[in-house]
Structure formats: structure tokens, C-alpha cells
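So, could you explain this one?
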Amino acid sequence: MENTEPTRKEINALIGATLLEFGASWCGYCKAAQPTISAELTQFPSIRRIKIEDGKGRRLGRSFHVKLWPTLIFMKDGVELKRLVREVDAGELKSALALITTDQATAE
């Protein structure tokens, strides 16, 4: 079963920290990035991760102007704060995840 892709309106309405991960199941870069992404996310359990199978005719990817995979979009309260494209570096990934989680404790 394939999950239906959320709409841009639904993504923009999300509250809190969200990582959008655009890619394709057959993409070598995407496969290579998975261990790094999963390892870093274990340190940020409050972040919502939404994996989106992207490709021709996929509206959500086009609305974010995704051109290369993987594209990681770091959002807080529906607003894009940072994006990493193609090569996923653990240090950059960790700092982007920290960016979208800052001030979470004080906001609650």
C-alpha cells in the first residue's frame, strides 16, 4: 500500500519541527543517505519525518522546487528554515535538525 502524499496546504499547517525527505526508492544517493539521516534523527525524537516518494508529476515536490534527490527540507511550524540537497553530511544534518528544534521547550 502506498501512502497518499500530503498537500502543500497540509504541510504548511503542520505545527512543530518537521523534516521533509524527498527522494525515490531506486535513487542511489537516497539509499546512501539513509543511515546518516536515521542515526542523526535518533538524537531528535520530537522531529516529525515525512518521507515523500518524488518523481515526474508529483505536485508536492514541484511546489518545493525539488530538482535533485535526496532533498531534505527542515521546517518549523510550516515554514522552511533550511534545505540540504544531494550529499548529506552528518554535521550539516545535525545543525539543521537542531535549528528546527530550538525554542521548542520554551514554546510549550
Q: What stands out?
A: Residues 29 and 72 are 12 Å apart (CA to CA). The two ends are 36 Å apart (CA to CA). Confidence is low (pLDDT under 50) at residues 104-108. Residues 28-41 form the longest helix (14 residues).
